[in-house]
Amino acid sequence: MFATYLIGLREGLEATLVVSILVAFLVKSQRRDRLPQVWMGVGLAVALSVLFGWLIEYTTTSLLSRSEDRELFEAITSVAAVVFVTWMIFWMRRAARTIAGELRGKLTEALAVGSLAVAGMAFLAVIREGLETALIFYSAAQGAAGDSGPLLALIGGIVTAVVLGVLLYASALRINLSKFFTWTGALLILVAAGILKYGVHDFQEAGVLPGLNDLAFDITSALDPSTWYAALLAGMFNVTPAPTVLETIAWVAYAVPVLLLFLRPARRKPAPTATTTTVTERGADTGAEAEAEAASTPQRA
Predict the structure, then answer these.
(1) How large is the angle between the packed helices 67-95 and 245-263, nearest 10 degrees?
(2) By Cβ atoms counted within 10 A, which residue in 45, 109, 228, 248 is the most buried?
């Protein structure tokens, strides 16, 4: 359940920061009359994200009758989720410094067009996070059918993210977003490795990949699947006591290089010139905007 909580927290905070930047810009620009359009776009994005998640679940439970087809569908969604997680982590690593400025620029253009453009801007800013959350949650929660724990954990993560976002916006809370996204990014890479491992297992059960009965090792005697810590490892990172050879290769081949790339020191950019406008010089950013722009690329913890 911690994995799905982490997904909700990470994705929810990204979406909350985006919305807070848009709201803060409108308030600062004396354009509060456009706030209803922002919330309309956000609400539509959330509704479509929930619909997308339901559609994935409905496809698995109702449209696919054969177990082989269900396994293949789950395997494909797992691989897609890993791609999205990897892209999202490195995108935030690269874009954290400039996201606030880019959003303000796009919103300025949308304001010149009209209310529908503002709603569309807010919708597009949130829908990516929502669709990613639905897909990643489905892949991370596979094998927990009939258990409401993962869903409650996801909701808990999103609620936590919203509370943090509101406090950041009100400047009542300051957190180091760079370190936050570094730690959660590293953990999500391990979660994604487990999702990929699960996807490989589904491909094997669907008959697409061989080696379903070829175990890399079996440490069931040391890691009893019935114990709480074994369930925790399996739920968070899909670490199981008797994985197949291909599952193990997939986990290691993804986790090791991606973690090394993510945690390596970022190249330092040249110092800004005298003509560069800094956050301090502008002096008009809210707490959420300043935190978003100050979230530099990850550093070593």
Answers:
(1) 10
(2) 45
pLDDT tens, position by position, 134-172 = 887 777 766 555 566 777 888 888 888 888 878 877 765
DSSP 264: S
Task: Record the pTM.
Answer: 0.70
How far apart are alpha carbons 79 and 94 in whole angstroms? Answer: 23
Q: What is the pLDDT of residues 278-287, one digit of tens each?
A: 443 344 444 4
Residues 209 and 212: their CA atoms lie apart, in Å, by 8
CB distance 130 to 23 below 8 Å: no
- Reported confidence tier of residue 111, pLDDT bands at 50, 70, 90: confident
CA distance 248 to 217: 9
For residues 219 and 173, the answer to whether their CB atoms sit within 8 Å is no
How much is the mean pLDDT over the chain? 78
Percent helix, percent strand, percent coil in the chain, to nearest 5: 75, 0, 25
Note whether 207 and 59 are within 8 A (CB). Answer: no
Cα–Cα distance for residue pair 143/99, rounded to 1 Å? 36
